[in-house]
Amino acid sequence: MNKEELVELITKEVMARLKEMLSSKECFTDKKKVLILEKAEDLCPVLSGALRDNNYLVDSIDNMEALECYEGIVLQNISPKELANLANGIGGSVKETVFTDVILRGKKVFAMKKGLEYQNFGTTANKQFFNLFKTYEEKLKSYGVVYVGLKELLSEIDGAKYEVEEKVSKLKDNMEEKAYRETNEVEFVDLTKKKLISEVELRNIYKNGINKVLVSKKSIVTPLAMDYARVSKVQIIKQ
Fold it and tell me: What domains sit in the chain, N to C, each tagged with a CATH number?
């Protein structure tokens, strides 16, 4: 057996066990639950915090239960590679494999509008190549994926009828999220309990309009996180 065959065999075994776990693991609470398809360390504190403030239990890929336990599944971030794989039903990672299972089971899937990373390259990418990812975005929409902002997610995840208004501008979406933050007095994110602060974490916080984080003096801020903070003017306050 060569190396490629061995890798393929191991991958198939892992995916088989994952699907068995998703279909057999029992729900351990009667409270409403939401699954965010990210590792626990990469969860956006603003998104997960808002869900918890609205009385939802939040799970990540690391501790997910049977898919039947969840009111909705959330795609927090979608990289260009993930978008292509999700649109074409390719399960190259646990996240992509779970998404495929979710769609086949007819569960609600919400994708955060600001998490579509390909949109950040609209001014630099080749037009035809950029439009290719637009078609992938539309494919997910045709599969039943609903693109939402934070406020929309909180109001729609209970199962109310969702109506897409194509004429709603990005400015309106930004204003709604700003109003939500002001109402809930979200001025900074407290990361003092975290030992390691990564670039991904700061990027998720900044996407939600917050540019101030509190960290412990003992916390380790990675060099990439420091570079991102400097470029994006995210204020890191050690306590």
Answer: 3-186 (3.40.50), 187-239 (no CATH)
